Amino acid sequence: MKEKVFALIEEALHVPEGTIQEDTMIADVEQWDSLAHVMIIGELEEKLGISIPLEEAIELTGVGELLEKAGIR
């Protein structure tokens, strides 16, 4: 499931495969702005059935934290 999440994020951000890993920090990915963040959260729910409450989603700082909130880690 982690790989599916990584692939979804990479697709949403238009970055090369392998760019997103569990230790990737949002601030380190130039394309990952607030609009992209909202899109990624929406895509996770729509395509993978992963629901993260908005209050928690806006506080995320990294992919590892996102996986934890999604119950994947």
What does the main sheet amount to? none
Strand element count: 0
**How would you state the average pLDDT, rounded?**
95
Radius of gyration: 11 Å
β-sheet strand percentage:
under 5%
Estimated structural class:
mainly alpha
Helix content: 40-55%
Oligomer status: single chain
Low-confidence stretches: none
Compute the separation of the termini in Å.
10 Å
Tally of alpha and pi helices: 4
SSE order in H/E notation? HHHH
| General form | globular
Please summarize what this structure is.
The chain has 4 helices and no strands. The protein has 73 residues and is mostly helical.
Blueprint (SSEs and pairs):
Blueprint: H1 2-13, H2 34-48, H3 54-57, H4 63-69
Description:
With 73 residues, this protein is an all-alpha fold. Helices cover 52% and strands 0% of the residues. The chain contains four helices and no strands. Helix 1 packs across helix 2. It is globular and about 25 Å long.
Notable features of this structure?
73 residues, mainly alpha, globular
